[in-house]
Design brief:
elongated; 141 residues; 14% helix; alpha+beta
Length: 141
């Protein structure tokens, strides 16, 4: 009788604990709640980069480090074509002339277009660059 007492107490404890906790959770697959898929293009694919200034300030863009900055007026849209589908990693740096933080919202409106909408944000320092790796992944920093 005394040998079975610890087993009975453990089973009773588990039963009482499971009954008192009404917030049970069930495991699900990632497909049920994993969020949006990250943007990615096929490696070697020619990409059209479309940048839209959705702020009320002048934004400046620099496609390759060391080149002259390109001004982008409020509401203006600018497109860059990738010269070669085998071009190594493509980067774009952007900033607000007044120093306000920015948010880059990326989308893929069609097969070969990457749209970057630059918006104002309260998060400091905000987003400052876009990086398209040669394996097709898109990162915003």
């Amino acid at each position: 009788m005394f040998k079975k007492l610890p087993v009975v107490l453990a089973a009773a404890t588990l039963l009482v604990t499971s009954i008192s906790d009404s917030h049970t959770s069930l495991a699900g697959t990632c497909a049920s709640n994993c969020g949006p898929r990250p943007l990615q293009f096929t490696p070697g694919q020619r990409i059209r980069l479309e940048v839209v200034n959705n702020t009320s300030n002048l934004i400046e863009l620099e496609k390759i480090q060391g080149t002259r900055a390109i001004p982008l007026q409020p509401g203006q849209k600018l497109q860059f074509m990738q010269e070669d589908g085998k071009q190594p990693n493509l980067s774009l740096v952007f900033w607000d002339k007044t120093g306000s933080p920015l948010q880059a919202v990326v989308s893929k409106p069609n097969f070969a277009t990457l749209r970057v909408e630059i918006r104002p944000t309260w998060r400091y320092p905000g987003d400052r660059s876009l990086y398209i790796l040669n394996d097709g992944r898109v990162n915003v920093f």
